Amino acid sequence: MQDRDGIGRLQGLRQAGSLKLLFPRPVGRGIEVVAVNTAGGITGGDRFGIRAEAGAGTLLTVTTQAAERAYRAQQDEVAAVENRVIAEAGAEVRWLPQETILFDRCALRRRLRIDLAPDARLLAAEPLIFGRAAMGEVLR
């Protein structure tokens, strides 16, 4: 995204597969992006990724519509989620997805790469839930 007249504007968008991005009505100068996995979860062999770039002086918030679920995978099938955040000079990024719930026997490789300009700001959290305690589930 780039700053035009004090308001962040989307510069490009590419979507594929079941990962879709929604853009609620803007409030203030920033852009809010809500990621939705229309498949409902992740399992072995799936590949997902977001590359979010905040141009100089912009405000970008990235979140998810619901908790992410990493389901049981077949042997030797690993799902991958690779996200990248780039914040240019004076930009502010809020990377705040809802929690990822790891189901028993899931296989997930997750990576978040963040590149910040020296005066850029970042608020980030990627909470993980290890199993479903209410179901008596143990993570193996």
What do you see in this structure?
The protein has one domain (2-131). The chain is built from no helices and 14 strands. With 140 residues, it is an all-beta fold. A hairpin with an 8-residue loop joins β3 and β4 (31-37). The relative contact order is 0.19. The chain has strands spanning 2-4, 7-9, 19-22, 31-37, 47-48, 51-54, 59-64, 68-70, 79-87, 92-96, 100-102, 108-116, 121-124, 128-130. A 5-stranded mixed beta sheet has the order 3-4-7-10-13, with no helix packed on it. Strands 5, 6, 9 and 12 form a 4-stranded parallel beta sheet that branches.
Secondary structure layout plus pairing:
Layout lengths: L1 E3 L2 E3 L9 E4 L8 E7 L9 E2 L2 E4 L4 E6 L3 E3 L8 E9 L4 E5 L3 E3 L5 E9 L4 E4 L3 E3 L10
Parallel strand pairs: 4-7, 5-9, 6-9, 7-10, 8-11, 9-12, 10-13, 11-14
Antiparallel strand pairs: 1-2, 3-4
- What percentage of residues falls in helices of 4 or more residues? under 10%
SS field, number of helical segments: 0
Mean pLDDT: 88
Contiguous uncertain segments of 5+ residues: none
Placed side by side, the strands forming the largest sheet appear as 3-4-7-10-13
Identify the overall geometry: elongated
Major sheet summary line:
5 strands, mixed
Query: What is the end-to-end distance?
Result: 41 Å
Tell me the series of helices and strands, N- to C-terminal. Answer: EEEEEEEEEEEEEE
Q: How many beta strands in the DSSP annotation?
A: 14
Structural class: mainly beta
Q: What number of structural domains do the residues give?
A: 1
The value of Rg in angstroms is: 16 Å
Q: Strand share of the residues?
A: over 45%
